[in-house]
């Protein structure tokens, strides 16, 4: 079972997406892409969250 903190609910299609299954893209604005990434729904492509990845 996936930890609820490692999932995001897509507001567009209603899917519950594990962080590991989300598509990653560069963040919007002036955020450093080496430190931040945007998680996108693999089903509909909508943005789920922008997350800190600086320690990865």
**What does the overall shape look like?**
globular
Q: How many beta-strand runs?
A: 5
Largest sheet: 3 strands, antiparallel
Mean pLDDT: 90
Please give the radius of gyration in angstroms. Answer: 11 Å
Sheet with the most strands: spatial strand order: 3-4-5
Span from first to last CA? Answer: 23 Å
Low-confidence stretches: none
Helicity range: under 10%
Strand content: 35-45%
Secondary-structure-derived class: mainly beta
Number of helices: 0
Word description of this protein:
This is Small CPxCG-related zinc finger protein. It comes from Halorubrum californiense DSM 19288. Helix content is 0%, strand content 36%. A hairpin with a 6-residue loop joins strand 1 (7-9) and strand 2. The strands form two sheets. The chain has a three-stranded antiparallel beta sheet with strand order 3-4-5, with no helix packed on it. It contains no helices and five strands. It has strands spanning 7-9, 16-18, 23-25, 36-40, 47-52. The chain is an all-beta fold and 56 residues long. The model has no long low-confidence stretch (mean pLDDT 90).
Please give the structural blueprint:
Layout: E1 7-9, E2 16-18, E3 23-25, E4 36-40, E5 47-52
Antiparallel strand pairs: 1-2, 3-4, 4-5
Organism: Halorubrum californiense DSM 19288
Protein name: Small CPxCG-related zinc finger protein
Summarize the structure.
Helices cover 0% and strands 36% of the residues. The chain has 56 residues and is mostly beta strands.
Keywords:
mainly beta, 0% helix, two-stranded antiparallel sheet, Small CPxCG-related zinc finger protein
């Amino acid at each position: 079972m996936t930890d609820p903190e490692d999932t995001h609910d897509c507001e567009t299609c209603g899917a519950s997406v594990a962080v590991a299954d989300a598509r990653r893209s560069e963040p919007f604005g002036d955020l450093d892409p080496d430190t931040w990434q945007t998680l996108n729904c693999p089903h509909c492509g909508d943005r789920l969250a922008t997350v800190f990845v600086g320690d990865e």
